[in-house]
Design a protein that fits this description.
Blueprint (H helix, E strand, L loop, with lengths): L1 E2 L5 E2 L10 E3 L1 H10 L3 E7 L5 H12 L3 E5 L1 H7 L8 E5 L7 H11 L4 E5 L5 H14 L3 E5 L8 H6 L9 E4 L2 H10 L3 E5 L5 E2 L9 E5 L8 H6 L2 E4 L11 H16 L1
Parallel strand pairs: 4-5, 7-8, 7-12, 8-9, 10-12, 10-13, 11-13
Antiparallel strand pairs: 1-2, 3-6, 4-6
Helix pairs in contact: 1-2, 5-9
């Protein structure tokens, strides 16, 4: 039991709130023990406490991403103001595997249509991409384990419930994943302002993975080099780029048009 600023005693938060936040050492340990789906765990940078070390090693053993963060970041995230140096973000659902996504296409008898998000850190953008993917009939979305938003409550809300219907896989290495997709006969289309062909010249009727770059820097170098094609969206105004989720919508619905 702890005392808060009003002098009242409280227990560590044992369940995720509506925002998916689990904070306090006992609460996070219990979440790991009980098998709660956890997207990411933040631990105070520089802490040498044995309990926090145990949480970090247990989480990594379960494949959970562990991030060291400044205490100021933890303070800003905290709802209870007593996070004890650790905050976990619950995932709204378990992550799928890449094979689950490919199987979804096989079961429908359709050529795979997959969205790959290269380090989309804004949860609102990721949620919007997942929503569009569901509406366009894409078979799944793939994100990297690090430097990306995950299946958090904000993403779920922004997706308008689409996270319940679209398999989302998380992989440690996007370039390696793209090579595996190419080995499966899937063509990889990256979006880039300097793409060597217009979007409307791309053949999206066959097995396709569409790569959407990050909000600020676009696709990473290794990801871009792994793509079979780099396509550009015609830009007729004074600006030269679109929001990542808007770009995803344009690419996906061109694929829908071609496949109809």
């Amino acid at each position: 039991m702890k005392e808060n600023k009003t002098g009242k005693r409280r227990e560590d938060t044992l369940e995720a709130g509506a925002d998916g936040i689990i904070e306090g050492r006992n609460a996070v340990i219990e979440a790991l023990r009980s098998g709660t789906a956890i997207d990411k765990i933040y631990i105070a940078r520089g802490e040498t406490d044995a309990a926090l070390g145990h949480i970090a090693s247990t989480a990594r053993g379960k494949g959970v991403v562990v991030v060291e963060a400044d205490r100021r970041k933890l303070d800003n995230m905290s709802r209870t103001h007593s996070h004890q140096g650790v905050i976990a973000l619950a995932a709204v659902r378990e992550y799928a595997s890449v094979e689950d996504i490919l199987n979804a296409a096989r079961e429908k008898g359709e050529p795979p249509l997959i969205v790959v998000c290269d380090e989309l850190s804004d949860p609102h953008n990721l949620g919007a991409v997942i929503r569009t993917a569901e509406c366009a009939g894409a078979h799944g979305v793939i994100i990297p384990k690090r430097r990306s938003a995950g299946l958090t409550a904000i993403v779920a809300k922004t997706s308008a419930g689409a996270v319940s219907h679209v398999p989302v896989a998380r992989v440690p290495n996007l370039p390696a994943l793209l090579k595996e997709l190419k080995d499966e006969g899937i063509w990889v289309f990256g979006t880039a302002a300097d793409g060597d062909r217009l979007l409307y010249e791309a053949d999206l009727k066959g097995p396709a993975a569409i790569v959407i770059g990050s909000e600020g820097d676009g696709m990473g170098r290794l990801v871009a080099e792994t793509c079979d094609f780099k396509v550009r969206i015609p830009m007729k105004g004074k600006l030269n780029s679109l929001n990542a989720s808007a770009a995803a919508a344009i690419l996906l619905y061109e694929a829908v048009r071609q496949r109809m």
